Amino acid sequence: MRDLDLFEAIARRRRAVRAFLPQCVDRALIERLVAAATTTPSSCNTQPWTLHITSGMALDRLRVALIDAVSSGVPPEYEVEAAGRYEGQFRERQIDAAVRLFETQGVDRNDKAARAASMLHNFAFFGAPHAAFLFMPPDGGLREAADCSKFAQTFMLALAAAGLGSCPQASLSGYPSIIRAALRLDNEPGKLLLGMSFGYPDDEDPTALARPPRATTQDVVCFHSD
Ligand SMILES: Cc1cc2nc3c(=O)[nH]c(=O)nc-3n(C[C@H](O)[C@H](O)[C@H](O)COP(=O)(O)O)c2cc1C
C-alpha cells in the first residue's frame, strides 16, 4: 500500500494555487512532467491534446494584454462552449469556494470592485513564471474535451509530486484571440480548452488557506451487489 499512501498524499497536496514564487522551473523538469502527463488514457488512444507553455517575455507580453483587455471590459469569447449556470448544490459549492477565497484575500463578497480586483489576479497568472494553454482538436467534441481534461489532471498531479503548484483557469480560455496574438500561435488549429498557471507555490500566501471541502465518499458512490 506504500504506493497508494504516496498517491493519496500527492492528490491531497494538489490544490488550486493562487500565489506563486517568481523562481522559474527548469525546462528539463517541465519536459519530464509533460512526459508523465502523456501517459493519460484517451478514447482509442487518440491523445487529442496540444500544450503550449509560455514563460519569460512572452508571458509578460500576454499578462499586459490580458489585464488591459479585461480591465477595459472586453467580454470573454470561448472557442469551447462555456458551461451554463450552476444550480442547487452546485451553486452553493461555487459560492462557498468563492467566499473561502475572498476571506483569505480580505475581500468583502458584496464589494463588486474588490471582487473584480480578485478576479484580475487570474490574468496576472497569480504571479506564476509559467502558463500552459491546452488545446483540443478543431472538430473535437465532448469526448476530446474530457480526454484533454484528464491530461490536465495528470499534469497537475505530476506538478504536485514535484513540489510545484498549479491553478487550472477557465477564465483564461475566454480570451483565445489575445492569447493567440501574444504567443504568435498562427499555426495552432485547435480550440483553446483551458489555461493554467504553474510554478513554485507561495505556501505563505494567505490564499493557501482557501481549501474548499469535498463531499463525503458516501455522497459520491453507490455500491450495487445484488
Ligand atoms: C476546469 C477548471 C477551471 C477553473 N477555473 C478557475 C479560474 O478561472 N480561476 C481560479 O482561480 N480557479 C479556477 N479553478 C480552480 C477551482 O476553483 C478549484 O479547483 C476548486 O475550487 C477546488 O479547489 P482546489 O483545486 O484547491 O481543491 C478551476 C478549476 C477547474 C477544474
UniProtKB/TrEMBL annotation:
Which Pfam families does UniProt cross-reference here? Nitroreductase
Gene3D superfamilies xrefs: NADH Oxidase
CDD domains per UniProt: PnbA_NfnB-like (cd02136)
Gene Ontology MF terms: oxidoreductase activity
Keyword annotations for this protein? Flavoprotein, FMN, Oxidoreductase
Q: Where is the Nitroreductase domain?
A: 12-200
Q: What is the official name of this protein in its record?
A: Nitroreductase
Q: Which organism is it from?
A: Hephaestia caeni
Give the taxonomic lineage as stored in the record: Bacteria, Pseudomonadati, Pseudomonadota, Alphaproteobacteria, Sphingomonadales
